[in-house]
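FORM 7B - TANDEM STRUCTURE REPORT

SECTION 1: FIRST PROTEIN
SEQUENCE AND TOKENS:
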Amino acid sequence: MSLEGGKGLELLGSVEEKFTLVSDFNEPTNDCQKDKCFISKGYDATTHFETTVDDVLDMYTRITGK
């Protein structure tokens, strides 16, 4: 049982089948001011779009300088 969901899964009791997905999180390494190639970070489905909005705002700042 994973530590992240352990307590919640214990509350469920007997679980027939559990699916766990682990994926890489990617982040750009280029110098966007130099090459003018603005790349967003990878998206994490558990963020409820909070970090996605932060990434878009960060990209806007990098692109416009504002």
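SECTION 2: SECOND PROTEIN
SEQUENCE AND TOKENS:
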Amino acid sequence: MPFVGFVFQILLGAFADKYRKHKLVLIVGVIAHTIAFDAMLFIPLAGFKLETSQLNASCSMEECRNSSRQDCSLSCGSEADMKHVCETGNGSSFRCDSTATCLLTCESLVSQLDNISIFWILMVLNLIGNVFFNAIGSLQDTITYAMLGEKGDAYGRQRIWGTVGYGVFAITCGFLLQMSESRSDTKFLSAFVLHFVFNVLSALCAVPYRVESNVHCTNIVRGMFHLIVQPKIAAFLLLVLVWGMDTGAIEAFLFWFLEDMLGSSKILFGVSLGLQCLVEVPAFLLASRIVKNIGHENLFLIITIAYVVRLTGYSVIEHAWLALIFDSFGFITFGLMYAVAVQWGTIIAPAGMEATIQCLIGGVYFGIGYGVGGLAAGVIYDAAGPIVMFRSFALLTLFVGVLFAIYHYVSIKCAKAPHTKFDVNADMAENRPVDSEKTEHPTGEEQQMRLMSS
């Protein structure tokens, strides 16, 4: 599934770039994502049929008790007999007075689909929903940078609201689910309704977007190939892949580890998610300033080290609540990481390929990296336990980080000009021509030479 999502996500970005239909693809993606995920609510109902049976009131309700859903009622021969009817014992059987004539009518929902069929339907819907979800995130980043123009440094102040929304409505949905826990048939309805409402609002908010660009890339495949074969870009994508694998392992198995091995309560899970959202807020606010002071490659190394420390930390704690210390590393491992990766993608993207490159980065992180990381973590967790799993990912991240550090050091030494930090605004302006009719755009080879000389 991660590989299918990765390819499809890049294709969506390439389509948006080629035909300059970023807003249209974004709105269609939001709608498709909404339909795919909300359709899951109806799968249990669509796969069942209603069967009605009648039993003597004195008989056991065993036939009804084992079905998924039931609606049972008691009917008697006349109103006069009602006073004789039915003491209810433990709720699983009815007993009638000998003078009453009673029937138990039971309506049950009986599954017409086997579990394997339901699994495949849900998996396909989940695949479609996640593919469009990841793609619209990358497209939104592209559109945001395009609308900001020369004010690209303000990206973090826009992206911060995604974190705020995630935190607020995760808590809201958790509260609503807790309130409806006793109602098994509508337990998750509130979450699906909120998801539908806010996605419709998101699509409507995108309608007035103005994405103006006269730059058109005639050969997107060739442009992307020329980009990813450069050592600097390939090294960055390798880091993104490993970061995605680390995130997939953490999100798939951290709570499982805390509950099974350290006896954590469910309350800690909510506190952990809230803390991670909280620390991301200042990260997005300060990201641009940090990049200017530290530089992209140095920040890549800091992010990698933060992942190593976080993973190692989870493997050594002996009390579940100590995990919050390492959850706070989300300031670096997601907040700064996401902001700097999106900014770097904007800088390196050839003119007219902005969405394609953002979808490539997002696909490597959320698609291949996240999926492979979760799968590999599951295999290691099952074979050797969570501690070995966390430490294995820490060692892998450290190894890749050392390779990147060596490459970074060698590239500085081999550069003809002294290495300087990136001037983000200058680089962004260089790759975002104002008017294609008045501005002579550099060729692909010239763009690559500029990138390598930086």
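SECTION 3: OBSERVATIONS ON SECOND PROTEIN
The beta strands are 48-56, 70-76, 87-88, 94-95, 102-111.
The chain has 17 helices and five strands.

SECTION 4: SIGNATURE
Preparer initials: ____
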